[in-house]
TrEMBL record:
This is Homer protein homolog 2. GO terms for molecular function: G protein-coupled glutamate receptor binding. The lineage of its organism: Eukaryota, Metazoa, Chordata, Craniata, Vertebrata. It holds the Pfam family WH1. Keywords: Coiled coil, Cytoplasm, Synapse. Residues 110-121 have a biased composition (Basic and acidic residues).
């Protein structure tokens, strides 16, 4: 029965089997990773299950090595699974504890292997000693008597020794077979170790290239930040120009409104100026009538004084009217000059804008 001896949580990765360089995530999120101990086989395994899928099933051998590649990431190579496993932890303490447990389990697996080898060597030596003792026993029996005497005298002991010898021979053959298997496995492990060393060197080279790319990205990021700051400053200047343009546009609208009011006032003055010719015509008519009255009143000397009073009143009114007309013309000239200066200022403002 296997029992868990240590459990943690981590993100599981496997090396890309085609490139042997890139990591492929084996789990979408952090999963449980456990050390298991099999008391019957005296072996240790790392097992991780994501749902119903086994993503890590790695038997720990003394030749394995757990390597920390960063503060929160570690990896080890499994030659039997022909892959490299990677674990990403949430903290450096979890990675350190997992690495320490890996070293402990590795040492325990090494002790178990040494004990099994000592046991096999002991059985092999025992079988060799039994093989040496069996001929001497047979020789002694052949010297002491005939075959019938041997069978009758030492039959049960010889049969027991023969059975033990057969068992030892089978154990020796089994140990030789296991030795050959172990030699083959050792050669495979050496080859896989060489591959893993190459992969580790490539991963180290990739780390250096990634560091260079990261520094280049940081420099590019700093350059982009400076450009963004410059663009923001230019945008601020553009916003200020927009505000100035908006203020100038508002001022132009105000001036256009004032110009429209002045034009309306000028139009009213023009309408009033149109009345002046009528007044002049009326004045001329009155003058003509006055002249006719003077010619006609020569004969009417008796009524001259009354008409003279009328004429004086008429002349006084005409003088007042001429004075008012002169004042009106002066005012109109002043308004026209103001309008002309206003137009020149507006034109100058439009050119500046």
């Amino acid at each position: 029965m296997e029992q868990p001896i240590y459990t943690t949580r981590a993100h599981v990765f496997q090396i890309d089997p085609t490139t042997k360089k890139n990591w492929v995530p084996a789990s979408k999120q952090a999963v449980t990773v456990s050390y298991f101990y099999d008391s019957t086989r005296n072996s240790y395994r790392i097992i991780s299950v994501d749902g119903t899928k086994v993503i890590i099933n790695s038997t720990i051998t003394p030749n394995m090595t757990f390597t920390k590649t960063s503060q929160k990431f570690g990896q080890w190579a499994d030659s039997r699974a022909n892959t490299v496993f990677g674990l990403g932890f949430s903290s450096e303490q979890q990675l350190t504890k997992f690495a320490e447990k890996f070293q402990e389990v590795k040492e325990a697996a090494k002790l178990a292997r040494d004990k099994s080898q000592e046991k096999v060597e002991t059985m092999s030596n025992h079988s060799q000693e039994s093989g040496r003792e069996t001929p001497s026993t047979n020789q002694a029996s052949s010297i002491n008597g005939t075959d019938d005497e041997k069978i009758s005298h030492v039959g049960p002991e010889a049969a027991l020794l023969q059975n033990e010898n057969e068992l030892l021979k089978s154990a020796v053959e089994q140990s030789n077979t296991n030795a050959k298997k172990w030699e083959t496995e050792l050669q495979t492990l050496r080859e896989n170790n060489a591959r893993l060393v190459d992969a580790l060197q490539e991963s180290s080279a990739n780390v250096e290239s990634w560091k260079k790319q990261l520094s280049a990205c940081k420099e590019e990021s700093d350059t982009l930040r400076e450009k963004i700051a410059e663009l923001e400053a230019q945008c601020n200047e553009g916003n200020q120009e927009k505000q100035k343009n908006a203020q100038l546009s508002a001022r132009v609208q105000e001036l256009e409104t004032e110009l429209h009011e002045k034009e309306q006032e000028l139009e009213n003055l023009r309408k009033q100026a149109e009345i002046i010719p009528q007044l002049m015509a009326e004045c001329e008519t009155i003058t003509a009538k006055l002249q006719a009255a003077e010619t006609t009143n020569k004969e009417l000397e008796g009524r001259i004084e009354g008409l003279q009073l009328d004429v004086e009143e008429s002349q006084q009114k005409q003088g007042n009217m001429k004075g008012e007309l002169k004042k009106f013309m002066d005012i109109l000239d002043g308004k026209i000059d103001e309008l002309h200066e206003f137009r020149q200022g507006l034109s100058k403002l439009g050119v500046d804008n």
